[in-house]
Amino acid sequence: MPDGSAYYAARVKRSTTTDLTPEGIHQLGLKQVAEIEAQMRAIAQKLGYEDLKTFNADIEKDPKLHAHSRQQILDLYRSYIDAMWKDLPTAFGRLPKAKVEVMPIEEFHEKEASTHYDQATPDGSRPGHVMVNTGDFERRTIITAESTAYHEGVPGHHMQISIAQELPELPPFRQQEFYGAYIEGWGLYSERLGKDMGFYKDPYSDYGRLQDEMLRAIRLVVDTGIHYKHWTRQQVVDYFHAHSAIDEPDVQAQTDRYIAVPAQALSYKIGQLKILELRERARRQLGDKFDLRAFHDHVLDAGALPLDMLDTRMNEWVLAQSKGGVATTASK
Q: Which of 52, 249, 272, 293 is placed for a possible disulfide with 188 were both Cys, Cβ 3.0 to 4.6 Å?
């Protein structure tokens, strides 16, 4: 397209709400893919496998790792969300008032829909819903159910969006504000936070978490590959197959998505990495004064923000904490 490079750079800035360049994101993606691959390989080796290809193939063939009914899938999501809800006070001071329910996606459109979150109403008259696709259950592995439950439910989308809606000091448009890098970044951060909190007891669930994280890392490489480095479609497909166990129909669908919607898919991993960076920076600068619960509360208690504004806000909070004070609310 005319001025395509400039247009893509603008889309990157809008999607990530940062000043990261396409080249910087591409290199970051390559690094993330290598790091996650090493973690996946470590789990496979602990379970007796020498390589990921053999491990992935056995997962696909293992009936114990596939759903046996629609109800089993729903029960898994409910058990993960219920267990996490009980543990939330160890990592958060502010909790959502709105409740969340797990429901199946209606059968009439389960072929097109993916598992997702439908938010609660601000007045509490309707709870949030984690809508789970239970269709074609025999072909579905269950190893990503735990990470998806945390992403869509708590401490992910339900918690973040409900808290934003419940903040009385925010005007309504801010309570409902959407910034993909913040919201999807928080969802992906929540998957990793479950690991930090001691969940993923089953190594297959932990491997499923890494599979989900790998998809988001691959997006950094292939989205910039298409629109910045001018990769062919086949290069994208080959990269997917080289670094994931995603099947061919999904690879083709993912590739279509990144071609059609430039830069949108960058938001997940960029947002997650920013929150992890802010947490590590705060931990390093505050030392014994660092409080994970207070950190999370301050990330959440201004609603969704562009990442550059979140960075400024958290720097102000760290400075206030280091002086023994309270961060100002001006940036809310």
A: 272
